[in-house]
Amino acid sequence: MNEKIFEISFGIIGHAGDAKSTAHEALGEAKLGNFEKARELLKEANETLTKAHRFQTELIQAEASGEKTEMGVVLVHSQDHLMTTMNFLQLAKEFVDMYEFIYSKLEK
């Protein structure tokens, strides 16, 4: 695997991992009833995930312009991290909303 693909792969893995950790933290805050903090963390997670997505976009643009992308386990692993984090972030947003709904019903 060439060095550029390796760097891009680890850029995706790093940013996606950070985004997922931040989304986990948001769920913890929501569980405690700290919904404003949870939403701030989800926003931060989304911004970090966008950085990972930019690395992926770089790969797609290179391939679209005729550059051959060398596939390897690290690149596949990075794509797995990105996609699972994207899904997790969507679910985390839903869970924060559900926690807020539950808290609102318990307060009545």
TrEMBL record:
Binds 1 Mg(2+) ion per trimer. It comes from Paraclostridium bifermentans ATCC 638 = DSM 14991. Coiled coil: none annotated. The modification Phosphohistidine is found at H77. The lineage of its organism: Bacteria, Bacillati, Bacillota, Clostridia, Peptostreptococcales. One of its GO terms (biological process) is phosphoenolpyruvate-dependent sugar phosphotransferase system. Mg(2+) binds at D80. The keyword Acetylation does not apply. One of its GO terms (molecular function) is transferase activity. InterPro entries: PTS_IIA_lac/cel, PTS_IIA_lac/cel_sf. Its cofactor is Mg(2+). This is PTS system, Lactose/Cellobiose specific IIA subunit. The active site is at H77 (tele-phosphohistidine intermediate). Signal peptide: none annotated. Keywords: Magnesium, Metal-binding, Phosphotransferase system, Sugar transport, Transferase, Transport.
